């Protein structure tokens, strides 16, 4: 398993174990640069849910970022976006400690 696949597996495992927000992995997008990863997720908390992408560069210390489509229902949910960003920062820190 190469580094990119290992990092993707760790991201998916860490987010799907989250208790505050239910994350569902829906797939990965292909990018032209092998050092960039782009994963697609659905986040759900109660009645609020929406799609978003997670992206990061893997050849430097990982800093995952969320990217929301203009049609995503998460655009109107600032508190949920803040929780997603906090979860991504925590996952990034965990993965950086492991690698």
Q: What topology does this entry show?
A:
Layout: H1 3-16, E1 22-28, E2 36-45, E3 48-57, E4 65-67, H2 78-98
Antiparallel strand pairs: 1-2, 2-3, 3-4
Helix pairs in contact: 1-2
Short characterization:
This protein is 35% helix and 30% strand. With 99 residues, the protein is α+β, with helices and mostly antiparallel strands.
Protein described:
The chain is of the alpha+beta class and 99 residues long. It has one domain. The protein contains 2 helices and 4 strands. It has a 4-stranded antiparallel β-sheet, covered by helices on one side. A hairpin with a 7-residue loop joins strand 1 and strand 2 (36-45). Helix 1 (3-16) crosses helix 2. The longest helix has 21 residues, at 78-98. It is globular and about 35 Å long. The two termini are 14 Å apart.
Can you count the beta strands? 4
Order of helices and strands: HEEEEH
Chain-averaged pLDDT: 93
Count of helix runs: 2
Unreliable residue runs: none
Portion of residues within helices: 25-40%
Major beta-sheet overview:
4 strands, antiparallel
Radius of gyration from CA coordinates:
13 Å
Beta-strand content estimate? 25-35%
Q: What is the distance, rounded to the nearest whole angstrom, between the alpha carbons of the first and last residues?
A: 14 Å
Question: Shape from CA axes?
Answer: globular
Number of domain units: 1
What's the arrangement of strands in the largest beta sheet?
A: 1-2-3-4
Class computed from helices, strands and strand pairing: alpha+beta
């Amino acid at each position: 398993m190469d580094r990119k696949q290992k990092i993707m597996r760790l991201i998916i495992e860490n987010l799907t174990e989250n208790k505050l927000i239910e994350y569902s992995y829906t797939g990965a997008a292909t990018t032209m640069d092998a050092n960039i990863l782009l994963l697609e997720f659905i986040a759900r908390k109660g009645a609020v849910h929406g799609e978003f992408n997670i992206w990061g560069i893997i050849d430097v210390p990982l800093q995952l970022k969320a990217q929301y489509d203009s049609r995503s229902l998460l655009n109107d949910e600032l508190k949920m976006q803040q929780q997603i960003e906090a979860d991504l920062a925590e996952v990034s820190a965990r993965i950086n400690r492991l690698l």
